[in-house]
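Protein 1 of 2
SEQ + STRUCT:
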Amino acid sequence: MTDPAYFLYHSIGQYPGKAEQMAAALGHFTDVWGAYDDAQWPKMLTARAEFLQLWADLIGADAGTLTSADNVTTALYSVMGGLGERLRGKRVLIAADCFPSLHFLLAGLAPRMGFTLDTVPLRDGAFWVEDDDMLAAWGPDVGLALLTFVTSTASHRPDLARLLAHGQAMGSFVGVDLTQGVGIIPFSLQETSVDFVVSTTLKWLCGTPGAGIVQMRADLIAEVTPELRGWFSQDNSFSWDLDAFAYAPDARRFEHGTPSVMACVGSVPALRWHAGQTGLLAHNRALTGAIIDLADAAGIRITTPRNEGQRGGSVMLQLEDAPARVDELRGQGIYADARGTILRLSPGAITTTEHVGRLFDALRK
């Protein structure tokens, strides 16, 4: 298929020239890493520094408050291990429509760390957890609330300002998983002050796996001591004194073993490309609006908020045979995916109005 219709930005994002630019970046990595000299670490840590700066610029993070992580789950584990005893005897609050990997982690940590994991359920027949239900479950005994910026199964956006105000009143730590929205829905730490965020460079940012990030407000960083630590947790990573370990004074304390430099280097072209774009959200809104109109006309149930202020960059449709439809669409050069009966559609930079038309022509057949 010479003109694939791509609706998978909730999974792996694409942009024009991605393969060539990534190949060049990774080719440079192999040239440096395979050279018979001693310049590997200085050159690659400098390259990773660009990755971190592009991320800091993207979300308005202050200097020294952000570093890389292997993925969102390890990023959260580093945070949890840092908060440690502060959560003992408390509740950790999370919505049932969170990203499952994070719930798996928290459920496993709860018995050892001494907190109670409280999962706010969906209402009968609902596709996302209501803000009112989160607030009703959120009392002063909540030590930490982990919020989802955009959900992966309904593309629902909570009212972060309302939830954060309540969390501040309750004296809770509040973290946000940005994964499914960052890169398409604007987010700035200068406007939305939270205790920490975790995310990845996959999806709307079009980067590689293995290039996650963890960010925490500066005053809290100074108070946490992550249990997952290693040589890169130190101010001087190349200090070998076994009796002189000391955490780095900034976000580097969330690092541990050798960082995934190659993933960061491979993601820099995508972050550079993204930083130069201005019309991504408007393009997405035009296409998601067309998807909603065509779904309504076809009598297909929409399981995503219709209000743009409550919606991420995806539109989900309910089809009883969604997995089979995904296979049929693939055979026609149309790429989407399914979670149970939910068909997930995420149009991005390389998706066009003609692609949306082809999608619905195929669905009607």
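Protein 2 of 2
SEQ + STRUCT:
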Amino acid sequence: MTMEPRTTTTRAEDAAARWLRRPQPRPGARTTLVCFPHAGGTASFFTPWAQLMPQHVELVALQYPGRQDRLGERPIATMTDLANAVAEVLRTGIRADRELILFGHSMGAALAWETALRLEAGTGPAPARLFASGHEGPSRKRRGTVHLLPEEQFVGKMKELGGTDPRLLDEPELREMVLPAVRADYRLIETYRPDLGARLRCPIGVFTGDQDSEVTTQDAEAWREASLGGDFFTRVFPGDHFYLADHAARIVAEMFGARSGAGHGEG
């Protein structure tokens, strides 16, 4: 009698499988790009980006608790807890022999920065660069009250900013499923207070939209203070807070093309 081999996974592997999505796995890649979604966002937002990556880059997108296939899980309530969880997942769930680059949009930019600080301070892979998109630098972090709005006003704000499929907000049953995670994310980022003395050793690049009412030129430039890396640049694209939906190919080119080197200023 022959027995089928039993496959087992560790708790760390199970956690990584819940958090990390690889739309196009590339076992031979030399670089891992980890993408951090916006408030209410999902890993699938970055799925189209995978085909834009150079062959040496594997895209890994984070799936936060409380949405899509993690809908039954409670959203994480504080930036500290969320960044701690993500840092631990990245320590165990990505290959340490690759270059690591982090990209975060809106809330995801702040989370990527907090995660990078933890990776630099602890064991595991430290990022080679952080790209922050659609969010002010830590020293200009502002409080917000969107998470306190009544439901209809809250939904109106979501539609105004974009980034959430309007069909999810218009259909009552779908709205009931998605709003708790979105509101929890807004509460997290609007009550978050960064350590203004913290600095990353790796360099930072910043992307914004020229019509983004949430992020000014001064907000974007403030990211310069958050790094000791020296190699800093900002890049402004046409568009509003979700400018990146129309400029994914150009953003990838900025990250991995000629401008990924030192010495680039705002353009």
